[in-house]
Every structure is written in structure tokens, then in C-alpha cells.
Amino acid sequence: MSTISSQSADRPVVIEACISSVVANTGGRQPTTQEIVDEAKACIAAGAGIIHCHHDFSLDRADAIAQCIAINRGILDAYPDTLIYPGFMSGKTLAEQMEHLEPMHEAGVLTMFAFDPGLSLHGRLDADGLMTKSTRNGATYEESTELVHRGHRYNAPSSLGIFELGALRWVRDFGAAGKFVPGTQVKFYFPGNNSFGLKRAAPSTYGLPPSTQAVDIYVSLMEGSGLPWVASILGGRILETDLPRHVLEKGGNLRVGIEDPLEPMEMTNVELIQTVVDLANKVGRPIARSTEARAALCAPALSLVA
Q1: How many structural domains does the chain have?
Q2: Which domain holds residue 268?
Q3: Exposed e or buried b per residue across 202-236, where buried means at least 16 C-beta atoms within 10 angstroms of its C-beta
Q4: How far apart are CA 101 and CA 288, in angstroms?
Q5: What is the pLDDT of residues 267-286, one digit of tens each?
Q6: Which of the residues 103, 190, 221, 283 could staple to 168 if both were Cys, CB 3.0 to 4.6 A apart?
Q7: Is the dihedral of CA 262, 267, 269, 273 positive or negative?
Q8: C-alpha 261 chain-centroid distance
Q9: Domain with 271 in it: what CATH number?
């Protein structure tokens, strides 16, 4: 059984709230811009330090970019300096998926952005339940390096999504060389039993299954990077596993929200955040509010404590 170290106890928890349900999985309607802003504000008030949300994918590209700008501006008007990062735009190329970043930066509302360094294959099952199909995700290391440079131009930290363990070597080396914008965080995507965009259960095929041992392996591979990390389960319910307490005891952060389960949720975003706040209190770690999150992410990284 792991116990919290004195170093971890002093480190505020940064709660990331992924507040947008994936309509392709859950059904229902797309929320309006104001509904997204109001939901984000409620999550920040509950203790979220980072907000991640998606635009309405039914909009054309110009309107989608305008909505991304309006969402961030609405949140920042109420909670200045909050770390908010949008989902990707639709598109087959990384340039298309990142098309909104430049306009958001020019509008003065880009405080964080995400990309997934390294390529990963996501299996898809055929009618017989065999993995005969796949989709590709992620950025090449050439593309990832260019996005690191853009982060400095934007003065915006990144959320680095990790699907495959090999990408942590790139993260480790770039982090050790001091290449990332301060406040950049490594996001472990552990695989769940639901896949993005599919209404029926389809176990994910990347990375290691979620477990406390897997958390320790992921952290050990980024040792020396100097970066903070956050754990999530894409296609699963992280709060129904033994990961949250272990993550908090090891000095990590947690991502919760109605997006990641990729299925309808009984609990709200605010209730999920409050659950993490309660657990952090039990473990003995304070919560980094939205005004404190970037400073908390800039703190020196901890070594994994056995």
C-alpha cells in the first residue's frame, strides 16, 4: 500500500475538468456557447484548475473557430488567467486540426493547447469482434517539435497527451533540455472499455491498462523531464478505480469530467470535481484553484516515491 510523501503533501492538486460529453458516443444535443461557458465557470468554482472543452462539430470551420474564441473569452472574463484548452478541429491533417490556435492567440484568449506527441494506432473491431481495422492518432516528432516552438510564440503551455509509452522518451528528453513552456503538463491516457465515436463498447488498444503499477511505469519513463503529470482513463470511469488515491499520493494530478467515460454519466462535472476535492482532503493535499494552477504546474517535479 502506497503512502503520501511529505513532498507530495505540500504539492497542490491541479484538477483538470473535461466538461464536454462526446455526442457521437452519448447522443443528445450540442450545448450552446453560453452553456459551455456556464458549465466551465461552475467547474472552476468547484475546484477545477484546468478546463478542457469541445466546440460544436456541426459548425463550419469559421463558425467553429469563432465559437472557440467566444468560449475562452467568456470563461476568462469571469476567471482571468485560467488554463483552458480546446479540442482539436475536425480534419485529417494536424494543420487542419490546429487551425484554431492562431486565431485564438491573435484574439488573446489562448492560455493552453493540446497535442499528442508520437503516433498511435487505435484498433477497431469488425462484425466478428476481431481487430481488423484501425485509426491513427497523434503528431510526428517533427510536428510535435514545431508545436513546442509555437507554444513559446503563444506563451501558452501544452497538455501533452500520451497514448503510447514510447512518446515519453521524447517528452523526457525535451523536458530535460528545458524546451517546454513552463506550465506544460503530461497527460496519461489510460485505455478504457469505450472508444471515441463508437456507441457500442469497444475496448481501447493503446498503452497499458489502468493500474497503479502502470502509473508507476509511466512516471518512471518520464523521470528527469521536470514536468508534472495528470492521469485519466479515456473510455472509462477513473473514479471507480484505485488510481485516484495512488495518483494523489504520488504527487500527480487528476482529470475528470463527463467526456472521458465516452458514455452517458449519472454524475455531473461538478460532482466529479467535488469527489476529487474530497479525496485530496483525505490524502492531505491542497487544491490549486484556477488562479494558482499554472504556478503549481511550474513547481519542480517529484521523483516517484516507492
Answers
A1: 1
A2: 6-31+42-51+111-285+292-297
A3: bebbbbeebebebbbebbebbeebbbbbbbbbbbb
A4: 26
A5: 999 999 999 999 999 999 99
A6: 221
A7: negative
A8: 13
A9: 3.20.20.70
